[in-house]
C-alpha cells in the first residue's frame, strides 16, 4: 500500500529542493553580474593604461622641449618656473597684506644683489670692500621708506663718500704697489655698486611709501616680468635677427617685438583694473617700463660681458643670480616713480 502522504506522481521531494531550484534560477544572473564586473575592471585598467601612456608621452615631449630650450638659453625651464612662482607668491603676499613685509623683501634682495656684484667684481680683479658696501647699502635702501625723499640724496652722498674713503685708506695700508689707474677703477666701481643696486631699491621703497604705492610697485614689476616673458617666448619661438650680438647674443628683434606686445597689453589691463588710470596711460606706462627694463637688461649684460661671466651667481637655478632677476626691475623704479607723480592727478580726477 502506498503512503497517502506521498505527492502525486510517486516522486519524493527532497528537503530544501525549492531553494535548490531558486539557486539554479539565479545562476544566470550571477554569471551576468560577474561578466559586467569583469568588463568594468578591464575598462578601468585600459583607461588607466591609456592615461599613463598619455602622461608618459606628454612628459617625454616636455623634457624634449625643455632640453632644447636649455641648450639654446642655458636655463632649466622647470626649475625656473618653480622658483619664479615661489618668489612671486612671497612678493604678492608682502605687497597685498603687509607693506613692511615688502621692505624686508626688497632689502634682502638688494643686499644679496650687492653681495653678488662685489663678489663678481673681486673675481675680475677689482678691489671692492664687501662689508662696508653691505652696511651703507642697507642705509641707502631703507632711507627711501623711512626718510623724506630729499634725505635720500644726503644718505646716498654720505654712503658713496664712506665707500670711497674706505677704499683709499685700505689701499694705502696695503702697500701692494697697485697702479693709480687701477685704484681709480676700484673707487669708481665701488660707487657704481651703490648707485646700481641700493639706490634703485630705495626708489622702489619711496614709491611704496606713497598712498596706494603698493599697487604701482606691483604694476611696474608685473610689466617688467611680462615684457621679459614676452621677449623670452617670442625669441625662443621665432627669434632670428640678433638685436645686440656684441652685448647679448641671445636677444633678438623678434623677442623685443614680443616684449612690446606683452608690456603694452599688461599696461592697459593694469591701468583699467588696478591703477584706475585711462587705457592710453596704461600704454604709456607699459612702454616706459619696457624701455627702462630693456636698458637695465642690456646694461647688466654689458657688465657681465666686461667681467667675463654668464651669470652673477648660481643661487637661483634656472635664473642665475639675484641680480640677474633684478636687472630689468631696478632701473624701472625710475620710470615707475616718475609716472606715479605724473598720473596720480588722473586718479584723483
From TrEMBL:
It comes from the Bacteria. Pathway: Phospholipid metabolism; CDP-diacylglycerol biosynthesis; CDP-diacylglycerol from sn-glycerol 3-phosphate: step 3/3; Lipid metabolism. It is found in: Cell membrane. GO terms for molecular function: nucleotidyltransferase activity. It holds the Pfam family CTP_transf_1. It is a multi-pass membrane protein. The chain crosses the membrane at residues 77-96, 102-118, 130-147, 153-170, 191-209, 215-234, 255-273, 279-299. Residues 1-35 are annotated as: Disordered. The keyword Cell membrane applies. Residues 10-35 have a biased composition (Basic and acidic residues). Its main location: membrane. It catalyses: a 1,2-diacyl-sn-glycero-3-phosphate + CTP + H(+) = a CDP-1,2-diacyl-sn-glycerol + diphosphate. Its EC number is 2.7.7.41. Keywords: Cell membrane, Lipid biosynthesis, Lipid metabolism, Membrane, Nucleotidyltransferase, Phospholipid biosynthesis, Phospholipid metabolism, Transferase, Transmembrane, Transmembrane helix. Belongs to the CDS family. This is Phosphatidate cytidylyltransferase. It comes from Microbacterium koreense.
